[in-house]
Amino acid sequence: MNILTIGATGFIGRHVVSQLVQAGHEVAVLHRGKTPLPPEWNVTEIIGDRSTLQDLDLRAWHPNIVIDMILSSAKQACATVDTFTGVAQRVVAISSGDVYRAMSVLHGTESGPLQPTPLTEDSQLRTQSQTYSPEMLAVTRVRLPWIDDQYDKIQVEQAIASHPELPATILRLPMVYGPGDMFHRFYPTLKRMLDARPVILQEQTVSEWATCRGYVENVAQAIVLAATSEKAAGRVYNVADPDRYTEAEWAAKIGEVAGWNGRIIALPQSDTPKHLLQPAGNHKQDLFMDSTRIRRELGYSEAVPLTEAIRRTVEWEKANPPDKSDFAQCDYAAEDEAARLILR
């Protein structure tokens, strides 16, 4: 196939391109030219910005499939649809599990009962458009500059699936971890282990909270599978690790790989040091997603086992710690006092 990728030079996208090339597909990479492409990719390089898609001569490359990695708003999705209708056979759109109403319940922006989990592709979606606060979007945009002020994956999905002449496949991704993770999601836990802390404290509801995760190479594998399978046309798929783990269980798994022999202790909110408290919301709302559909319909399964995925991530985090300005410093004195009170 001729497969055009948009925004595929980043954390997840580089694995998508690599796997497509290894599978023998002809690949074009549309990007802004700020990230040099590995020469071993041997791909067609198209320099441009997604904001000017319709001004680029993309039709001449005759893409069969378009994989759009960096859809943020309905405006961007409409530009993709307008550009490739009548040109490509199908578009694969990268969405997120944040479309579910459970995300709004977690953040406290929608009231009502907890949403049942695991979340399936048919679970209730958010009823309000603001997924994240402007402040949170501004922080996120530092690491993901393609996100715009109208960020809403629900509107992205609606727009991308709006044209019958351009079938779409929509992938709802989890929290993705692995080498290159710009958010360093493992680091706060790992740092305490590397510092030989005997106890790691977690607020009770956070400790018991279960979200959805996926290792970066496995997530890329799911994207490639969906892009190259005709059966994926018109379908929506959750992508996530198959097993449900709480935050305490994730910390324990990281500890096993890191060789840490300490204890994980859950504290009531009133006894939790302030720097360990999460933003206001309802952490009784889990975000664990069910990925049965993509496994059943497309035969997806993880190529990299969980323990190996954690090992690779831990090794990368150790070699590439975040800048101090990007990491909330540990207040070990406050943690020691809280641990002393609970263990006395």
SSE layout:
Blueprint (H helix, E strand, L loop, with lengths): L1 E5 L6 H10 L3 E6 L12 E4 L17 E4 L5 H11 L5 E7 L4 H7 L26 H10 L9 H8 L7 E6 L1 E3 L9 H8 L4 E5 H4 L5 E3 H13 L7 E3 L8 H12 L4 E5 L24 H7 L7 H14 L12 H12 L1
Parallel strand pairs: 1-2, 1-4, 2-3, 4-5, 5-6, 6-10, 7-9, 8-11
Brief account:
By secondary structure, the protein is of the alpha/beta class.
Characterization of this structure:
This protein is α/β, with parallel strands linked by helices and 344 residues long. The chain has one domain (2-343): NAD(P)-binding Rossmann-like Domain (Rossmann fold, 3-Layer(aba) Sandwich), CATH 3.40.50.720. Helix content is 34%, strand content 15%. It has 12 helices and 11 strands. It has helices at 13-22, 74-84, 101-107, 134-143, 153-160, 187-194, 204-207, 216-228, 247-258, 292-298, 306-319, 332-343; strands at 2-6, 26-31, 44-47, 65-68, 90-96, 168-173, 175-177, 199-203, 213-215, 236-238, 263-267. The strands form 3 sheets. The chain has a 7-stranded parallel β-sheet, with helices on both faces. A two-stranded parallel ribbon has the order 7-9. A two-stranded parallel sheet has the order 8-11. Helix 2 (74-84) links the parallel strand 4 and strand 5. Helix 6 (187-194) packs across helix 9 (247-258) and helix 9 packs across helix 11. The longest helix has 14 residues, at 306-319. The protein is globular. The N and C termini lie far apart (65 Å).
